[in-house]
Amino acid sequence: MSDADSAAPAAVMQPRPRVVIVGAGFGGLWATKQLTDAPVDILVVDRRNHHLFQPLLYQVATAALSAADIASPIRAVVGRYPNVMVLMDKVVGVDTEAREVVMMDGRKPYDYLVIATGAGHSYFGHDEWASYAPGLKSIEDATDIRRRILLAFERAECLSDSEERKRNMTLVVVGGGPTGVEMAGAMADLAKRALAKDFHAIDPRRARILLLEAGPRLLPTFAEDLSASAERALNRLGVEVKLNAPVAQVDGDGVIVGSERIPSRTVIWAAGVAASSAALWLQAEHDRAGRIKVNPDLSVPGHPNIFAIGDTALAFGPDSKPLPGIAPVAKQQGRYVGTLIKARIAGSPGIGPFRYKHYGDLATIGRKAAVVDFRGWHLHGFPAWLVWSIAHIWFLIGFRNRLIVATNWLWNYATFQLGARIITRCTD
Ligand SMILES: Cc1cc2nc3c(=O)[nH]c(=O)nc-3n(C[C@H](O)[C@H](O)[C@H](O)COP(=O)(O)OP(=O)(O)OC[C@H]3O[C@@H](n4cnc5c(N)ncnc54)[C@H](O)[C@@H]3O)c2cc1C
After folding, report:
1. pLDDT > 90 fraction of the chain, expressed in percent and rounded
2. Global pTM exceeds 0.85
3. Residue 413 CA to chain centroid, in angstroms?
């Protein structure tokens, strides 16, 4: 050993900061990607093994696409990065004293924690409605809804009682936001075009499809002319739109709106959203929907190393209005938090508060109409549908998914056929 060697202090390996990201939806994945080139060890925990492109879930629910077309295994998306480990487990709490995430199958330590656990359905205090009116959030929800819709027509074909047949052929969507509008339009396409010639005892074109909205117009977050355009497009497809129609009851016989009972065996819930339970894990201040009120840098008050992003966070725009629960917010927040963590690790003072850039709103109505608001520039009808289609294919994750979805849409468009009309689990 040389003198120089013996004089040098033993090199002490500093452990790399551990970043735990809970949830591999839009927020979690974009945060992960931002950190893959940073000197950190990342652990992504999700209760599912796939990232889901929720904006196209309604197409799985209405048999236009198959589940695998809009989902990608999380490992396939981020598992190839040497500093990313993926665990499939459900997080049930956070031990902020010990700085550990508590999962069903153990605990994991963190230096930085990003919570991106999204949202679920809210039945506004009527959880008993859930079994009669499923919401649309996961692949299981979408395939369950597809099963209910297709079974309703199969049942109607077998029935001789005209009232029961009518009840089976009445499909109700509750909630006139983008999901409700897209569901109702796609259900009309399914009944009035794809299924039209496939039955003998019934005529699926005579199916009654209702869209119930408690407020005075559809798409309340869009400009008024686009709401009106969406309503006209739905009417053209044969959807009955009822505005100022809050639902008072949902049960096995259908729904009650005001004093009217609408008999139906298929009710879809697209009316309310509730954030994940992350606020409870952290005992954090939250709004009525359960969203954690975050600081301007998206950290959770009192916990500078814990961040909440996406649908589970309540952050405000420059106009002091809450940011909407949409994918671009979650993605931009994910990217921002990744950049902030990198800056902190590099010892830089910070990168300023999070600022959201809103590029526009889109919603589609059936197979050839949509409404688009791109920074105040409004588009309706087929041109809007083209913009909507290109945007959704562009934003899908994975070349295979893009190719399959584009091919499916072209096929559906040219033939009126929907390929994913498979009923699984045939009993009610
Ligand atoms: C039907 C539907 C249609 C939509 N359409 C549009 C649209 O057209 N345009 C648009 O911009 N937005 C749309 N959205 C909203 C958009 O999908 C959400 O805003 C976005 O997904 C939020 O991203 P996120 O990362 O916060 O949560 P999510 O994408 O929901 O991801 C949350 C992740 O956390 C995981 N998770 C949850 N709890 C736990 C736990 N306890 N432990 C471990 N993992 C957990 C989940 O499995 C999931 O992978 C739509 C949403 C739905 C449901």
Report:
1. 82
2. yes
3. 25
